[in-house]
Amino acid sequence: MENLDWQNLGFGYRDTDYNIRCYYRNGQWGELEINSSNQINIHMAATSLHYGQEAFEGLKAFKGKDGKVRIFRMDENAKRMQSSCDGILMAKLPVEKFMEAVRLTVKMNERFVPPYESGAALYIRPLLIGTGPEIGVKPATEYMFMVFVMPVGPYFPEGFKPTDLVIMRKYDRAAPQGTGKFKVGGNYAASMGAGKLAKREGFSAVLYLDSKEKKYLDECGPANFFGIKNNTYVTPLSDSILPSITNKSLMDLAEEMGLKVERRKVPYEELAEFEEVGACGTAAVISPIKGVYDADNDKWFKYGNQKEAGEWSTKLYNKLRAIQYGDEEDKYGWVEVL
Ligand code: PLP
Ligand code: COI
What we know:
The protein is α+β, with helices and mostly antiparallel strands. The chain folds into 2 domains: 6-152, D-amino Acid Aminotransferase, Chain A, domain 1 (2-Layer Sandwich); 163-324, D-amino Acid Aminotransferase, subunit A, domain 2 (D-amino Acid Aminotransferase, Chain A, domain 2, Alpha-Beta Barrel), CATH 3.20.10. It contains 6 helices and 18 strands. The strands form 2 sheets. Strands 1, 2, 3, 4, 5, 6, 7, 8 and 18 form a 9-stranded antiparallel β-sheet that branches. Helix 5 (245-256) crosses helix 6. The protein is globular.
């Protein structure tokens, strides 16, 4: 096993041993290829470079007490990547090929899966890009799919300590009927300006409102949003947010714990009613939120005791992690033991 400071990895790029690649040419996907270089060689007129024809995924593998490696819900990531491909007219990768590539990449880099005690995980980054040259705006005829991995700690450096979000109405991450529901690079490029401003002011992320009316909560730059009140887990339903696999899992766990679950439009005003608020995603896991600052109206919404995550968020976090690390029975069939 690699000798790394597993407890203090942070969320940053790191080279590992191998990555997997697969090419789409002449109307079909080829075989998986193992590569040990971190460089790719593509045409300067590749559609991914000019017109944003690219989609990515993010998932994790965990090492259990038993030393076994578990991959969390990769079929869901495979399907979401297909949806992103449909969204921006890229060649769709078969679900089974996606999963085979993920398994193989994790296996080939097993020495980088963090030890159980560290609480860290192996982050898996599948990427699909248009590589064929075009100069008019149209889909490429050639594509490249790859998967690489790296050990990571929590996305927000505070980990499971509560942080603040900010609302700034003059920034949108996605158009109402645009690409917000797909995991495509353009959404992240669009969120960088506001994200940088937020970080500079001490916030961990922007909480976006719906870009049409600015009446409803959408999501954060890198994570979905949820609020809890009156024993109810509430999370936005919107055409412009990413369907988070973590959020989907938390909804099931919340229900199992006896919470009501509501996925619906969440008016801005409801921020004043929540007892607990969180951001959730693969990288963020659950990032508890202690305050939302509405910068346009100089108004704060505060949650909990400002020091620790709330009771339900803590229970949900512990339950999800226990399933991911194999401490608890996986009754939903969410993990695949490698
Ligand atoms: N929303 C956005 C914009 C994201 O980038 C992510 C991260 O993948 C999420 C939500 C959370 O999705 P998931 O739980 O599937 O990782
Ligand atoms: C993830 O949670 O996997 C993400 O992709 C979020 C972020 C790193 C963009």
